[in-house]
UniProtKB/TrEMBL annotation:
Domain ABC transporter: 11-248
Entry keywords, A to Z: ATP-binding, Cell membrane, Ion transport, Iron, Iron transport, Membrane, Molybdenum, Nucleotide-binding, Transport
CDD domains: ABC_Carb_Solutes_like
Name the UniProt record assigns to this protein: ABC transporter ATP-binding protein
Molecular-function annotations in GO: ATP binding
Region (Disordered): 1-20
Cross-referenced PROSITE patterns: ABC_TRANSPORTER_1, ABC_TRANSPORTER_2, MOP
Organism: Streptomyces andamanensis
Transmembrane region(s): none
Length: 363
């Protein structure tokens, strides 16, 4: 049993066979094959992460019934959904561009779902008013979508999805269309609403911060397959692919450990404080790297490499140097330090990292 299957089994064992999501999504689309096991307990928020073309959106559409499975299974609260039409599934969807009905008010957009489920117009509007109040939008009930800000439209879309009381909530890049300031505010609000949601929520996002803040568990998909899953802290501490390492902001290397030394295929060795034997990863943040124009004679760092500056870019309030040479790595330093070192593309530098600032773990 793989780590991924063990996780799915653990969720089902803890919460019983008839609750939550139990899926194995297999979709063949020409030259692309999605093969993703996915399980989640009621009340759990799972984020699907991965580069463009990894299969995240295909997985979400398969859960919604918009893309048919060519294999595997899809069960929700014990019921098989593979042959259930999309409109009959207890699934709510929040699309990236919200897809609000432009001719309806915010109230009637939210009331649309309950009306489709058989509620009277008065009942549906009463439920919709309650949901808009929860979202802090009671004063905007009569506004058409064009009169709403991006953040308000996003909250209406979430209310519309929740008003049908779904057993599975799907969110496709729900914050992507927002500006930075609005995103910060709406992310906090969305986290609160998801924390109160009693069923399963699956979130697709490219933004690691959205995933870390909103999700209880991350599932990383590359080339149609799950390459790693775990809590945000587990993923951030022990990335297993270059994509994940870049996502969480770490330099990552794979080699063979012999005690405190991990030797890479290139022959370069890294000294760590952990003692391991066999295949291993070594990771460290760009901020752990110190740069010198001359080989330092007084450094206590056990790792020292001759490098060349391949590029420089602003990264937050710091400068990130992309280095090649004995070891390809990223280093973060202040603008003042970069100026004092005279860093520019092509400049030669020595890069040092203390063993205590590395983290080694089995591959």
């Amino acid at each position: 049993m793989t780590d991924i299957d063990e996780t799915a089994h653990r969720v089902r064992a803890d919460d019983g066979p008839d609750t939550g999501l139990d899926a194995h999504l297999v979709v063949d689309r020409g030259g692309f094959r999605l093969d993703v096991p996915l399980a989640a307990a009621p009340g759990e928020v799972v984020a699907l992460l991965g580069p463009n073309g990894a299969g995240k959106t295909t997985a979400l559409r398969a859960l919604a019934g918009l893309v048919p499975l060519t294999g595997g299974r899809l069960r929700l609260d014990g019921a098989e959904l593979e042959r259930t039409p999309p409109e009959k599934r207890p699934v709510g969807v929040v699309f990236q561009d919200y897809l609000l009905f432009p001719h309806l008010s915010a109230l009637d957009n939210v009331a649309f779902g309950p009306r489709c489920q058989g509620a009277t117009r008065a009942e549906a509007r009463a439920q919709a008013a309650e949901w808009l109040a929860r979202m802090g939008l009671a004063d905007h009930a009569g506004a058409k979508p064009r009169r709403l800000s991006g953040g308000q439209a996003q909250r209406v879309a979430v209310a519309r999805a929740l008003a049908t009381r779904p057993r599975l909530l799907l969110l496709d890049e729900p914050l992507a269309a927002l500006d930075a300031r609005t995103r910060l505010e709406v992310r906090a609000q969305l986290r609160r609403h998801l924390a109160e949601f009693e069923a399963v929520a699956v979130l697709v996002t490219h933004d690691p911060l959205d995933a870390m803040v909103l999700a209880d568990r991350l599932v990383v998909v590359e080339h149609g397959r799950v390459v790693q899953e775990g809590t945000p802290s587990e993923i951030a501490r022990r990335p297993r692919t270059d994509y994940i390492a870049q996502l969480v902001g770490l330099n990552l290397y794979r080699g063979r450990a012999e005690g405190h030394l991990v030797r890479l295929e290139s022959g370069t060795a890294l000294t760590t404080t952990e003692k391991l034997t066999g295949p291993a990863f070594v990771a460290f943040p760009p901020g752990a790297v110190t740069l010198h124009r001359e080989r330092p004679a007084d450094t206590s760092a056990r790792n020292l490499w001759r490098c060349e500056v391949a590029g420089l870019e602003t990264h937050g309030d710091r400068i990130r140097a992309d280095l090649t040479g004995d070891l390809a790595l990223a280093a973060d330093l202040t603008t003042v330090a970069a100026a004092e070192l005279g860093l520019e593309p092509g400049a030669g530098v020595w890069a040092a990292v203390k063993a205590a600032q590395t983290h080694a773990y089995p591959a």
